[in-house]
Amino acid sequence: MNKVKSLATKDLLGLKDLSLEDLNLIFQTAESMKEIFNRPIRRAPALNGKTIFTLFYENSTRTRSSFEMAAKMLSATTGSISAATSSAKKGETLIDTVKNIEVMGIDAIVIRHSMAGAPHLIAKNLKASVINAGDGCNEHPTQGLLDIYTMLEKRGTVKGKTVLIVGDIAHSRVARSNIWGLTKLGAHVIVCGPPTLMPAGIEQMGVEVSSNLDDVIGEADFINVLRIQLERQEKGLFPSKEEYTRLFGIDAARMQKAQKDVVIMHPGPINRGVELSSEVADGPYNVILDQVKNGVAIRMAVLFLLLGGKNGGE
Predict the structure, then answer these.
(1) 29 is known as an active-site residue
(2) Contact in structure between 142 and 180 (CB atoms under 8 Å)
(3) Residue 23 Rama label (left phi>0; alpha psi -120 to 50; beta)
(4) Of residues 34, 140, 266, 299, which has the active-site annotation?
(5) Which one, of 283, 277, 307, lies nearest residue 7 by Cα?
(6) Is residue 90 flagged as an active site residue?
(7) Which residue among the candidates 34, 50, 64, 112 is catalytic per the annotation?
């Protein structure tokens, strides 16, 4: 049997420090994982005997279910804990929680936490692999990976392409992971949103900054529309939802200024009528459901590469 390839690290904490080689390895592996979707029985024994736990301190539908689906399709055993029912409610520290989980015999833990850097902290304290499923306003690496993988699927490459990220950049971990990954792959990234939702110094990440959507929408090969992070921001960062929609919402009229083959993306959940009109969200430009399906393939690839599974066809 050929030696199984693996990532250069035991953890996936972000795309900022992920090498170009590891990025491409994940995308190549995800492509092979998608073949499992077409089998009569959508399961492979690659991670049989491995145990994966999800630990979410914030609400999630897509990410959590996607990781659990990915693990089960690779025949891993899964378990989950939510903060609402964990001993954190009794005052237990994060490190104590994850160490107690680790001694049960887990191989990987998937964590979402409101504090930026929480996955990095636990990765230093565990032998098990740690996968960041979103930490505060820092990164959401698997969402960034699935977004980029979807772009590659649609256009073959992102090198030389222009990706426009629209919305609440300041509070978006999705935007940061996309930026780190896309710039490494040679894409031109434009971030666009209200100045009050644009982090200071964002230009240092190698992006172009705009506060006028109509000026830049025509340049984009891909438009990644972010959800307004109402639960993470203080009041008063923009006048009203109606004002935001008028300036930064994408509807059929605004799409007239876009390229005819532009690809519309959204990490979900969509605030319909705010970031996207229903006509655009359900229209021919969007690949939102493709992103969801690709999310399972990407997470299968990440789990496989971190845990050293056998070939998916075996």
Answers:
(1) no
(2) no
(3) alpha
(4) 140
(5) 307
(6) yes
(7) 112
Annotated catalytic residue 171? no
Q: Active-site residue 63, yes or no?
A: yes
Query: Could you tell me which residues come within 8 angstroms of residue 75 by beta carbon, excluding any fewer than 6 positions away?
Result: 43, 44, 45, 46, 47, 48
CB 121 within 8 A of CB 95: yes
Residue type, position 71, single letter = A
Helix ranges, the chain (H):
20-37, 62-73, 94-102, 118-123, 141-155, 173-184, 213-216, 241-248, 252-255, 278-281, 288-307
* Domain architecture of the chain: domains with CATH: 20-139+293-307 (3.40.50.1370), 141-291 (3.40.50.1370)
**Higher-confidence residue: 254 or 61?**
254
| Cα 101 to Cα 81: distance, rounded to the nearest angstrom | 10
CA distance linking residue 164 with residue 220, whole number of Å:
6
Q: What tokens were used for 307?
A: 């845990």
Q: Which residues pair with 192 in a beta bridge?
A: 166, 210
pLDDT in tens, 168-199: 999 999 999 999 999 999 999 999 999 999 99
Distance CA 159, CA 254 (A): 26
CA dist., res. 296 & res. 287, Å (int): 15
Residue 234 has a pLDDT of 54
Catalytic residue, candidates 10, 16, 62, 155: 62
More confident of the two residues 310 and 250: 250
Please tell me the distance from the alpha carbon of residue 287 to that of residue 289, in angstroms, as a whole number.
6
Tell me the three state secondary structure of residue 25: helix
| From 29, 51, 63, 245, the catalytic residue | 63
- How many whole angstroms separate alpha carbon 241 and alpha carbon 249? 10
Which residue in 3, 89, 90, 260 is the catalytic one? 90
